Amino acid sequence: MSAAGGNGAGVGAGGAAPLAGLVLAGGRSTRMRTDKAALPYGGRSQLERAMTLIAPHVTRAYVSVRADQSSDPLRARFPQIADTHENLGPIAGLLAAQARHPEAAWLVLACDLPLLDEPTLAHLVRSRAPQRMATAYRSSHDGLPEPLCAIWEPRSAAPLAAYVTSGRQCPRRFLLGADTCLIDEPNPRALDNINTPEEYRSAMTALAPQATADPKHITVQYYALLREQAGRRDEALVTRARTAAELYTELTQRYPFSLAPEMLRVAINTEFREWTAPLADGDAVVFIPPVAGG
Amino acid sequence: MAAFQFTRTPIAPDELRRALADPACGGYAAFEGWVRDSNEGQRVRGLEYEAFEALGVREGERIVADAIARFGVAHAACVHRIGALAVGELAVWVGVSAAHRDEAFRACRYIIDEVKHRLPIWKKEHYLNGDSGWVNCERCAAAPAQAAAEDAAAARHVHEHV
To answer: Is position B158 within any domain?
Structure first.
């Protein structure tokens, strides 16, 4: 065992490399028009939030920065690894980290994942396959690997460097062609990244229920495939979800629903409604799978 | 007779037809949907319909009222079976009476098409090989793009025939 690092966290069994953390905060935030790492969520910056989330899982957590960002006050609070390549995108941060600590595996996190939650990170670490090149989530949107909430093993360093040398720089394509262990997301929205002011507002709305909404008593009836997957016809529950969309997201964490919300319609109190319609205490909600009458 | 209803017992079209009789009507058109013994290459043994009845009745009544207003027919009604059905059984019935045949045919076609698209009712097919599946749910979950293409094709089909 090569358990470098102090507290033992992140050291896998069976000779797995120690796990270090890398939060990528070297992007240029062009479309957001303001530093994404500094965007506030619930009173703290996204960078602080990501560093707090990653800390329990790793021997040491670093923030990945561009060389010209090292004295930025937000980033200066944390141990840093500065990029050694320019204009390579997120892959530059990983290359620099692997060069600095070749013995470590890297739990890499983008710092524009405001919906990332502790269960999603814990599930990734639990599912780690140290004998593979990497362990990554399969995107709930397009089925492709998510390179920026993933574990990169030391054995990925040489092929990744060769990949960059050959003029390529897309980490997603690299993982697609590499020996990657792909796992499903427990929360399908957890890895929604935000690049524009509109996406930021949408993420804030999704995060708001935990912070502000009062608990509501809601009844849910299940039909057809959803009834079978939920294993019940109906239930009464207490939720902070503010809309039917948020309620469905919450329920997908509890039941193995295979239907994406785009495939479903929603009824509240026996009328078809929009997914964004607000929920009120006492509402009866039905999610309607694709119909097949006649 | 109710404009729309669900029933758990076999549909009796003759009785339903009599309720639409009207001396002012010169035409009557009906559609019967039957349980077929195959679907998309699979041999079907029987099927099960399940409905969100409270919303289904409201939506069904709206469809029939729309058809009457749109095509100016005298009377229209629709009945949909729910529960377990065997091959050959009557799953859905639509009847329309009108002064003339043209609007009766068109209103009948409109009602069955809208029922298939909008009514919260689901069909589980049981196959001879022992498998079963919810129609439009289990296959389209894997291939939403294909389902969308089929929907577009179905929409063109309706357009050509109405």
So the answer is: no
Per DSSP bridges, beta strands A145-152 and A284-288 are unpaired
Domain holding B72: CATH number? 3.90.1170.40
A124 near A149, Cβ under 8 Å?
A: yes
A30 close to B (CB below 8 A)? no
pLDDT value for A153: 97
What one-character-per-residue DSSP string does A146-210 give? EEEEEEE-GGGHHHHHHHHHTT---HHHHHHHS-EEEEE-SSTTTT----SHHHHHHHHHHHHHH
Host domain of residue B111 = 4-133
Give the rounded distance of the alpha carbon of A139 from its chain centre: 9
Q: Which amino acid is at B134?
A: W
Nearest CA distance, B23 vs chain A (angstrom): 30
User: Given an 8 Å threshold on Cβ–Cβ distance, is A260 in contact with B122?
Assistant: no
Give the C-alpha separation, B51 to B115, whole Å.
12
Q: Is B54 helix (H, G, I), strand (E, B) or coil?
A: helix
A265 to A68, A249, B112: CA distances (angstroms): 49, 14, 20
Q: How many whole angstroms separate alpha carbon B10 and alpha carbon B12?
A: 6
B70: tokens are 């749109």
Q: Which amino acid is at A88?
A: L
Amino acid at A3: A
Q: Would you state the pLDDT for residue B160?
A: 31
Tokens of A110: 């983008």
**Exposure b/e, A150-164, CB count within 10 A at least 16 = b:** bbbbbbbbeebeebb
For B124-148, how does the pLDDT look when each residue is reduced to its tens digit (9 = 90+)?
999 999 999 999 887 543 333 344 4
Q: What is the pLDDT of residue A33?
A: 74
Q: Answer whether B48's CB lies under 8 Å from B84's CB.
A: yes
Task: Name the residue type at position A134.
Answer: A
Domains and CATH numbers, chain A: 19-184 (3.90.550.10), 213-288 (3.10.20.30)
Query: Which of B58, B92, B134 is the closest to A294 by Cβ?
Result: B92
Q: Strand, helix or coil at A145?
A: strand
Total domains in the fold of chain B? 1
Taking contacts as CB-CB distances below 8 angstroms, the residues of chain B near A262 are 144
B145 is a domain residue:
no
Please check whether residue A270 touches B, CB under 8 A.
yes
List C-alpha distances in Å: A20 to A156, B98, B103.
15, 77, 73
The answer, yes or no, to whether residue B51 has pLDDT greater than 70, is: yes
